Amino acid sequence: MAGLPFDDRDGWIWFDGQFVPWRDARVHVLTHGLHYASSVFEGERMYDGEIFKLHEHTVRLFRSAELLEMTIPFTVEEIDAACKEVCARNGLHDGYIRPFAWRGAEVMGVASKGSKVHVAVAAWEWPSYFDPEEKKKGIRITHSKWRRPDPATIPSEAKAAGLYMICTLSKDAAERDGYADALMLDYRGYVAEMTGANVFFIKDGVIHTPKPDCFLNGITRLSLIDLARWRGFEVVERHIKPEEMADFTECFITGSAAEVTPVSEIGEYRFTPGNISLSLMDDYANLVRRKLAVG
Length: 295
What we know:
The longest helix has 14 residues, at 54-67. This protein folds into 2 domains: 12-124, Aminotransferase class 4, branched-chain amino acid transferase, N-terminal domain (D-amino Acid Aminotransferase, Chain A, domain 1), CATH 3.30.470.10; 132-288, D-amino Acid Aminotransferase, Chain A, domain 2, CATH 3.20.10.10. It is of the alpha+beta class. A hairpin with a 4-residue loop joins strand 9 and strand 10. Helix 2 (54-67) packs across helix 3 (76-89). It has helices at residues 32-36, 54-67, 76-89, 132-137, 165-176, 219-230, 275-288, and strands at residues 12-15, 18-21, 39-41, 44-47, 50-51, 95-103, 117-124, 139-148, 181-186, 191-193, 198-203, 206-210, 235-238, 250-255, 259-266, 269-270.
């Protein structure tokens, strides 16, 4: 299915409690979520027939909706089941799952009172987010001109569509310049994250990662921290100044799509994928395929 447009595929999508043919899963052009970004979503991976951290993702979907004052008209258990069912209906053994909720077209205007919350789940095959050969030697990243916003201006804890506009701008600009992604600072000027992944640095055997107080505390990020500490590594969550990147020797990013990906450069800063990054990349691959048990 690689290269096919996402509105013209075979398969099934779970839509408001019913399975509909992929091409029929449509909404009106005056949908509130399209005009005012009143939508939330998740991104999940299935490995060898099992969705990694499915329940945690669904719980976060509901938390994101709550932060946008949206009430999802299903239970967590019903969405968990829908995610599994849509994979089965589409014959997926390995793939990517996208549950999402949005306000419909019942009203049009900034205010959302009277709009209905809709929910859908789609799933499809999706290989590595980055080129496998590039991933082994470390991806190249540039700087974004956009910053993650102050939590007082937007509910930054939510995985909400509106928060990703500057990520799209940053990712597009990076790819135009030949890079795989872009590093975003936060509103204070500290290192924050990539456009769709969290970031980790290594110095003298210690792993450092930005404190997620104004950006998404990723489920993969939390899994990696648990994994690293289980392996005996010290993990420090703190504010990191951009100039500190000159002192780190290794760097990698994490996310449901990115998984664990080493980094070779961020703008003027250079890193060498080493034993810690590469071993954690392998450990994570074994963890999600249930070949490694942590705890």
